[in-house]
Amino acid sequence: MNKAIQLNDRFGAATTGKLGMWLFLVMDALTFGTILIGGIGLRNAADVWPTAGLILNVPLTAFNTFLLICSSFTMVMALNGVQKGDRKSFIKYLALTIGGGVIFLGVQVYEYTHFILGSNELGVVLSQSGFSGTQFLPFTGMYGAVFYTTTSFHALHVLTGVIYLSVILTQAVKGQYGSDNYDRVEVAGLFWHFVDLIWILVFTLIYLL
Amino acid sequence: MHSESFWRKDIFSTDHKTIGKQFLFFGIFFLLFGGFQAMLLRWQLAYPGQPVPWWLMGFLYEGTGGIIDPDGFNRLFTMHGTIMIFWAITPILIGAFGNFLIPLQIGARDMAFPTLNMISFWTFFLSGVVLLLSHFLPAGSASGGWTSYPPLSLPGGGIPGLGQAFWTLSVTLMGAATMMGAINYIITVIRLRAPGMTYWRMPLSVWGLWLTSILNAIFVPVIAAGLIMLLLDQLLGTQFFVAGRLAAGGGGDPLLFQHVFWIFGHPEVYILILPVWGIVSDLLAIYSRKPAFGYKVTSICMSTIVVLSSIVWGHHMYTTGMSPLLGKAFMFLTLLISIPSSIFFFNWLGTLWRGSLHFDPPMLYTMSVIWVFGLGGLTGLYNATVTSDIYLHDTMFVVGHFHYTLAASVLFGGFAAIAHWFPRMFGRMLNPLMSKIHFWGTFITLNLVFFNMMVVGYAGQHRRIYNPSEYEFLQPLADMNVFITYAALVLGLFQILYLFNFVWSLVKGKVAETNPWRATTLEWTMDYPIPHGNFGEIPQVYHGPHEYSNPNTDQDWAPQTVEIKSS
Ligand SMILES: [Cu+2]
User: Fold this and answer.
1) How far apart are CA A138 and CA A161, in angstroms?
2) CB pairs under 8 A between A and B
3) What ipTM was predicted for this assembly?
4) pLDDT tens column, A128-177
5) Yes or no: is domain B18-524 CATH 1.20.210.10?
6) Residue B310 CA to ligand 1 centre (angstroms)
């Protein structure tokens, strides 16, 4: 339908879909930015803020971070595969990427369950940090609020990415993509890399600092 | 062109023209809804505590003995503001005309992402349904004002039930729909302009709508984050925006919400009015049969305002205990906006100067924008100046001021746009006689209402007061409040005439010729009905949008598709 596409504009050969995704990512970054900057401001104003690594499981999440970076790498490989017309490696790496996302979410669900169910050990750590009770919940001080809001908003993005890439995978299995038709794969990849990038910020700000 | 089923063609359509019309009907419905709420508000202010008469649907208040109780009054002004801003003005100006005009005026077959466009409308629809449903909650709808400041809007702030949560949810959904629209509008303008349609040849309407979309793309994501945090506070018990006695563990900062709200909220007023500025600039040229005075300067000024509007939000917060130095900085930046505004304002006058003015209904509406926007802009200076704002803050003066800029300017801009493009949208002319009666009736009563609001505000009447007669210093204003109310009721009556005119013209209006206003832009080049895909062949554009009375053409206008050969 869109015969009027002008390729002589200053955005060169970037497809319309890619431009749209870039714009969306800028907007999404603004939402994330507001949540993160708001979190920093609230942290500075809060009376109680536990030392890093006391409540949150940093080694486990460091593994998760590594996993997400790997899935970004496999996404690059998947795109590389489809661009070369290597359908097998395209599908393999795409599936690995989705797998990485699913495991990431699994680890996060495990972490959440651990916090929400609570335990005596957790209670000890919480009281060291100045909180009461044996559960770490969204309303356990500003710390809990910032932690749950930031990480769950990011997890929502990972979930979206997993669903998005699964749709691409289904289409790929049906043979929709090839070396002359991979724009959608590239666009989906942009989203996935963005989610990965944001996680590195979240991990640094919430877990490490 | 294959034939499409009713569902694909008229309901879940991906055609930007159909989606534009859907937004228009949606917006008009909510305009009437929010307008009716304004009448009830005025009734209470004129006759505090007296039963609502039958002709204002008094039966709605049977539960409270026929009168509007204080909580009901709070719910009314909350929903009136929310609905008018987000569900009436936004869909009419941005949703309807953004959709209808952008592809047609730049020579595109549709939006860049037609499916996303459809999803945007239906998300908007859903948000409206959530908002309407909130009126039927057992404890009633939201009542914390359209700003929904915490801690008032949080549990423990005194508002019972789920009304505030429904409010937050519906505004968030509305924001999601707006963001989808913004992506579409921005990319469409960047990508789908016809050959020869450079940025400097786009109609100013497209400039306005495009700049609006850019502001939407930058600032709606910010308020979305704030709304998500507000919703979590309301439903999950986090305490982002709670401080002091209400805060259980640690506590957050209510002022943070105000910052986030106004970082979005100030650009929002430009989001609403930029399309009108563009449309007015174009229509003045068409009905004066003259090129728009200072076309480039106007678009540069509008762009400058877009930039400035993002760094002035603090002028809504002078009374929050802001440091005087910061207050001064915000005041300076805000007053700076009056420079680009004045420049394009004078450009409008320049377009009119020695033009051959045609007082068709669209022109009447357009010219009234100059008056109401001028007055609204000038009274804004008193709100932008710290010293006078500390006195005027939260009074009816502010209400009068922003009704001049938002309600009056945007409404007249919308009326102008509807009257002008009605023949393109529906193939018929809006009845000119009824339009003119509606124009004069609305123009006179609207000024009586909003001007006198500023007067009672200057005399000290608080903007959200339930019963002015309880205060001795406001008692002398009683007659004036009654007068405003009757003016508002007459204003409301004229809108019923408008609705009648709209429906009547839709069915029985004079069948329009292809280009009844002899306009130069691309949307007037094809016969009605415009097919899905708009153009048979994508047109070649040769010149800017305002070639009127050019001595090198044989008629007094040259369509953008016709080359002008200088003799
Ligand atoms: Cu403002």
Assistant:
1) 24
2) 125
3) 0.91
4) 888 888 888 888 888 889 999 999 999 999 999 999 999 999 999 998 89
5) yes
6) 10
